[in-house]
Amino acid sequence: MEADFIQPAAVSEMTGMSTGALAQLRYTGTGPRFYKPTPKTVLYRRSEVIAWVEASAHESTSRATPSFA
């Protein structure tokens, strides 16, 4: 059974994002849901990190623009 809760360093390895970038996402509320069991401890649920990454899937880098533009 895989570990349910992981630390920011593990999220960093999974996503390729720095721990500083993850901290910024926590600050802005735009990253995966996180848990703070103590004031200095940050944890993520592995399944929620995976779901957050999967929710960001795109099929194209272009914006939707009219074909006549």
Task: Give a description of the structure.
- It is a single chain.
- The chain has 69 residues and is α+β, with helices and mostly antiparallel strands.
- It has one domain.
- It starts with a strand and ends in a 14-residue tail after the last helix.
Task: Give the helices and strands, then pairings.
Elements: E1 5-6, H1 8-15, H2 19-28, E2 34-38, E3 41-45, H3 46-55
Summed up:
The chain is α+β, with helices and mostly antiparallel strands and 69 residues long. Helices cover 41% and strands 17% of the residues. It has one domain (5-55).
What is the ordering of alpha helices and beta strands?
EHHEEH
- Give the overall form: elongated
CA-CA gap between termini? 52 Å
Radius of gyration: 15 Å
Mean pLDDT: 90
Number of strands: 3
Order of adjacent strands in the largest pleated sheet: 1-3-2
Helical amount: 40-55%
